[in-house]
Amino acid sequence: MKINHFAVYTNQLELLKNFYITYFEASSNDGYHNQTSGLRTYFLSFSDGARLELMTRPGLTQLSHELYQTGYIHLAFSTGSREAVDTLTTRLESDGYTVISRPRTTGDGYYESCILDPDGNLIEIVE
Question: What letters, b where the CB count within 10 A reaches 16 and e where it falls short, cover 83-101?
Fold first, then answer.
C-alpha cells in the first residue's frame, strides 16, 4: 500500500500552487472547478510519484498554525544532498520566506531545515 496523495485547503490557491512549482519542482494539472460548490483544486505531482492536492472553496475557516499541536504538522521534501538543503533554504530565505530552523543534523540523524510555506504550513527540507 502507498499514500496516493495529501490534500491541503488554502485561501491562496494560485500562490500556493506557484510556490510548490517554483521551489519544489512540482508539476500541476490544469485544475478542476466544481461550478455548484465553488471547489477549485490542483493536483501537483513530484518526480517520485508523490502528489499534493491544493484545494479552495468559499467559506473556509482559518486554521491555527501552532508548531506543537495534534494532527498534520509538516510535509517533508527530500533534496538528495546536504548542499541542496543549504541552497534551497538560502533561496527561500532570500525570497522572504520564514526559516524556522537552519540546516542542521537532528538527533534522529536527518540533515534538514524547516520553513513555512505562504499559508504558514511547516515544510521540512531534508537531504
Answer: eebbebbeebeeeebeeee
H or E element: which one contains 111?
Answer: strand 111-116
> Where does 22-98 show beta strands of DSSP type E?
27-28, 32-33, 40-45, 51-56, 74-78
Residue 66: pLDDT over 80? no
93 domain residue, yes or no: yes
Same domain (yes/no): 78, 46: no
Cell of 46: 513530484
Residue length, the chain? 127
Supply the CATH number for residue 35's domain.
3.10.180.10
Residues β-bridged to residue 6: 52
Does this model's pTM top 0.90? My answer is: yes
| 58 pLDDT more than 80 | yes
Supply the mean pLDDT for the chain. 95
